[in-house]
């Protein structure tokens, strides 16, 4: 009886501790990104970028960008540069408009002076494997 | 043996407590008059459409940057608050007042802004989402024009938090109303300004490109046809969409180029959109928008 209770207790503890071990506080990263928007940009949205321990290949959001407005999307994560997190912008026809990986270099912000109004997809991918954790902010200026 | 059982029971209790709804969340859920849960729909789909709706602040910035003067009479009076007795009216006018607050902030009309703040706080409290509106901080920031950036930031964050909370609570219908109210008010302001500046191509195009956003809003309302109030507003929005259907938006994709400047990837967008909209279209859209806005604000 004692062994059964001990086993159940141990299993419960393991089950409870598993999510903690792989926890990604992407909200903190997203909030930390807001003040990093360049001067003159007004904050619009913050985005959580959680690779969920490698189970997600990409995280995607969408937003209507308008002609004549300049947008900035930045990235925040642990460690150097963007920790392999790449943001890519696609138009409504899924044509690639911009990416933060240029010539193998990971850039932490994109400035996009929009010339064509429409729905755009903001896609975050994880270079060098999933399981990455970060955040991002979107701002605009005229 | 006894200590193991106690520890196990304590663990279970902790887990159970963590899953209990906070009192304010429960009060919120109980308070909704249209408390019938929304139809069986994929909340993720609704949330992904909701997040696309652009901030009305973008239009206020455009108006200011283009030299348009501040005009308080374009806004919904904060004194209309007492007219909003249903959660439908409260939610949609919370969105309307949110746009009005953004407009007063952009023009640094702090005295007017504070009146909107009070009405917003009141509506938010009545919808049990007042905890997301930090009126003290906003009020303090609003008293000094040097705080404009912080003021805009915190109000945007507060509205984002409200929308996020409503969506995670399965009450995306209120979030739809809030965003629609905000959009309609921005549309109404733009149309009024455009009517006084009929030669402004920029304003005409700004109105025309709202076709893309209205299509998303109509799509969202389609999920809530069962709700009498939302069905009625959907009918009006569909009339507005019919007026927008005459506008032709042509998108041409051309590969963009990029260069890194001071650690930022600066894009050169080579794609274009052209918006074909006539004066008659603007007048028709303005008239329908004004009629819907009058209906929701009174």
Give a description of the structure.
The complex is a heterodimer of chains A (142) and B (298). Chain A is α+β, with helices and mostly antiparallel strands and 142 residues long. Chain A has one domain: Jelly Rolls, CATH 2.60.120. In chain A, the strands form 3 sheets. Chain A has a 4-stranded antiparallel sheet with strand order 1-10-3-8. A 4-stranded antiparallel sheet of chain A has the order 2-9-4-5, with no helix packed on it. The radius of gyration of chain A is 19 Å and the shape is globular. The relative contact order of chain A is 0.28. Chain B is mainly alpha-helical and 298 residues long. Chain B has one domain. In chain B, helix 5 packs antiparallel against helix 6, helix 9 crosses helix 13 and helix 11 runs antiparallel to helix 12.
Uncertain runs of chain B with pLDDT below 50, 5 residues or more? 10-39
Distance between the termini of chain A: 71 Å
Mean pLDDT of chain A: 87
The most extensive interface between chains reads: A-B, 52 and 53 residues
Q: What is the N-to-C succession of helices and strands of chain A? A: HHEEEEEEEEEE
Counting helices, strands and paired strands, the structural category of chain B is: mainly alpha
Which regions of chain A contain 5 or more consecutive residues with pLDDT less than 50?
Answer: 13-21
How does the helix and strand content of chain A classify structurally?
alpha+beta
Q: Specify the oligomeric state.
A: heterodimer
**What is the arithmetic mean of pLDDT of chain B?**
88
Strand order of the largest sheet of chain A: 1-10-3-8
**Beta-strand content of chain B:** 5-15%
Profile the largest sheet of chain B: 2 strands, antiparallel
Order of helices and strands of chain B: HHHHHHHHHHHHEEEEH
């Amino acid at each position: 009886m004692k062994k059964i209770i001990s086993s159940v207790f141990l299993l419960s503890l393991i089950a409870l501790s598993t999510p903690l071990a792989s926890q990604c506080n992407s909200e903190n990263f997203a909030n930390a990104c807001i003040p990093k928007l360049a001067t003159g940009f007004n904050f619009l949205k913050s985005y959580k970028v959680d690779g969920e321990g490698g189970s997600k290949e990409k995280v995607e959001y969408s937003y209507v960008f308008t002609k004549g407005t300049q947008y900035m999307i930045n990235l925040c994560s642990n460690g150097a540069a963007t920790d392999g997190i790449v943001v890519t912008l696609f138009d409504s026809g899924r044509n690639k408009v911009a990416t933060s990986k240029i010539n193998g270099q990971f850039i932490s912000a994109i400035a996009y002076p929009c010339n064509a109004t429409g729905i755009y997809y903001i896609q975050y991918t994880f270079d060098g494997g999933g399981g990455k954790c970060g955040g991002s902010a979107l701002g605009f200026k005229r | 043996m006894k200590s193991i059982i106690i520890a196990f029971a304590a663990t279970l209790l902790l887990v159970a407590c963590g899953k209990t709804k906070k009192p304010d969340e429960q009060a919120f859920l109980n308070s909704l008059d249209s408390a019938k849960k929304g139809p069986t729909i994929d909340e993720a789909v609704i949330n992904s459409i909701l997040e696309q709706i652009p901030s009305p602040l973008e239009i206020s910035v455009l108006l200011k940057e283009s030299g348009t003067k501040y005009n308080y009479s374009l806004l919904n009076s904060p004194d209309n608050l007492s007219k909003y007795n249903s959660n439908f009216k409260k939610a949609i006018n919370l969105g309307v007042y949110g746009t009005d607050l953004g407009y007063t902030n952009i023009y640094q009309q702090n005295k007017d802004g504070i009146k909107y703040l009070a009405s917003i706080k009141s509506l938010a409290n009545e919808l049990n989402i007042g905890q997301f509106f930090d009126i003290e901080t906003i009020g303090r920031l609003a008293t000094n024009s040097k705080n404009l950036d912080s003021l805009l930031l915190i109000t945007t964050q507060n509205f984002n938090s409200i929308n996020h909370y409503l969506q995670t609570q399965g009450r995306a219908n209120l979030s739809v109303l809030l965003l629609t109210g905000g959009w309609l008010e921005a549309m109404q302001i733009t149309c009024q300004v455009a009517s006084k500046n009929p030669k402004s191509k920029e304003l005409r195009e700004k109105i025309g490109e709202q076709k893309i956003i209205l299509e998303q809003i109509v799509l969202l309302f389609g999920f809530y046809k069962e709700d009498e109030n939302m069905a009625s507003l959907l009918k009006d929005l569909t009339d507005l969409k019919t007026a927008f259907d005459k506008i032709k938006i042509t998108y041409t994709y051309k590969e963009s180029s990029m260069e890194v400047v001071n650690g930022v990837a600066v894009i050169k967008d080579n794609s274009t959109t052209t918006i074909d909209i006539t004066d008659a279209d603007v007048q028709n859209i303005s008239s329908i928008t004004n009629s819907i806005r009058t209906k929701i604000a009174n």
